[in-house]
Sequence to fold (152 residues):
Amino acid sequence: MRKGTWISIRSVALAMLAVTLASCGGSSGSASTSTQAHQAPHQAICTTVGRIQTEVKELTTTPLKPANLGVLLTGLQSIQSDLQTLGRQARSLTGTARTSAMSAESQFRGALSSLGSSIGQSSSLTAAVPKVRSAFRKLDAAYQTAFTPLHC
Fold:
């Protein structure tokens, strides 16, 4: 592969590692007091989960090439932001709905955290490309496992 491609693949891997490290701290912030969260908390959570699904699908289908680096980085950052939102929304729920939403958020956050470590073990460009693709597919599977129980 060309040198530019190697740099871009390496940049994606480093960005994924940065998102991984940033996501390890868990969610912070107070429970949402917005009218929407009180009127339709499940709908708000489903909207956030839908955004995460869109970003995960985009990561799994976007070709790994230099021109797409920005799309991949934006997708990872959006997922991280949506997980923070989901954590706040989950804390505004009560009972089993709260437990289910918080569990889903935590489970997916863990999958996102493990993403960077699996890619960071690549010793060459040849090894990195399939690992990045595989990591994105695993993230898609983790999405299904974590969020399907929420029935969005």
